[in-house]
Amino acid sequence: MYGKAFAPEYQGALQELSVNTAYEDVLSAAREREHRAEAEGTPLELAQARLAVAEACRRLGRLQEADAAWRSSYRAAKSVSAQGAMAWALWSGGTLARQRGKLNVAVRWLTAGRDLAEQAGDMLAYGYTFAGIAETLRIRGDHEEARVLHEHVLAEARKRGESRHIVWALEGLAQIDRFAGDLDSAWSRFEEAARTAEESGDERGHAWALRGLADVSSLRGDHDEALLLLSRAEQTCRQMDLSSALAYNRKMRGNVLFRASWYGEAARTYRDAREKFRVIKEPRGEALAQLGLLKSLHRLGRPRPETERELIALRDSLESRELRHTRQMVENTIAEL
After folding, report:
1. 3-class DSSP state for residue 9?
2. How far is CA 9 from CA 15, 47, 129, 189, 336, in A?
3. Domains defined along the chain, listed by start
4. Band of residue 61 on the pLDDT scale cut at 50, 70, 90
5. How many whole angstroms separate alpha carbon 180 and alpha carbon 150?
6. Contact 13, 51 (CB under 8 A)
7. 229 Cβ partners below 8 Å, 6+ apart?
């Protein structure tokens, strides 16, 4: 069994905020609390407020503000030796680094956060940082190592009844299964994640699970069902100001349209996704959208040398960003051409 979803990253005076609170509202409340904590000279409350600022800004795609906020949160927590709050700040910083494509840095900060959380006895922060490491390794392409960590997170989450961790772990394992070609297992895990998220009131997790179900539906040939699932998820993304999730939703819509051979519409959708990723400076998503766009243009009859030239440029641009798995996808496309 599991309880209702909540957001432990909203702490102190902000703990009344819901996991489903729109991020513009989170940012407004966090800024107000930040100013009050500065005036009152309370470092721990300042660290907590700036953590919420960092998370809201990250989700909204305001990455420079997010970077400044998590670092400031860490400094405030360190000034009073609050190891738990320091761990939460490092979790936020590591998650931001992953979003920016800096995966080695992400693992380093998340690992440091995990160790601090363990020392502080903050099991929630420990779980969040541990899950963050698993997610980063999966994105980097280290699937077997990520699977072991995701399985550990899932077992601990089930034991503690933490619905958000259950959903995250199931979605991570489903992604690994999907890349391994085990669509039945991927569908089962995404379906359980969607059900758990819906029953626990986690709209954000539900939107991501619907995106996964849409991917598997499309791979099975049911493109119309996939588009309906994506439309449901997109509504949640817009309501909650989920900039990154919305961009990935649009990229997946491009994938579905491409698989259905609707290449013109796929190209338009990939362009939209690419621009959304550029706005929030998310290199992995931008690269995937660009890859989809180039494949669509090729199917629409674009001269092959032009497509090859842009694919090679895309591959080379990924070399310094640690996105090995994404780079391999581009190389596979070049080989197919």
Report:
1. coil
2. 8, 11, 12, 26, 44
3. 7-122 (1.25.40.10), 263-337 (no CATH)
4. confident
5. 16
6. no
7. 210, 211, 213, 214, 217
Cα–Cα nearest to 142, from 320, 336, 328? 328
Burial of 160 from C-beta contacts in 10 A (0-12 / 13-18 / 19+): middle
Give, to the nearest 10 degrees, the angle between helix 103-120 and helix 123-140.
160
- For 125-154, what is each residue's pLDDT tens digit? 999 999 999 999 999 889 999 999 999 999
Q: 321 pLDDT exceeds 60?
A: no
Condensed to tens digits (0 to 9), the pLDDT of residues 243-265 reads: 889 999 999 999 999 999 999 99
Q: How far is CA 318 from CA 201, 223, 237, 291, 324, in A?
A: 37, 30, 27, 12, 8
Residue 2, Ramachandran bin (φ over 0: left; ψ between -120 and 50: alpha; else beta): beta
4 neighbors 163 (Cβ within 8 angstroms) = yes
pLDDT of 89 > 70? The answer is yes
Confidence (pTM):
0.91
Dist CA 298 CA 337 (whole Å): 9
Region of residue 81 (left: phi > 0; alpha: psi -120 to 50; beta: else): left
108, HSE (Cβ side, Cα atoms, 13 Å): 5
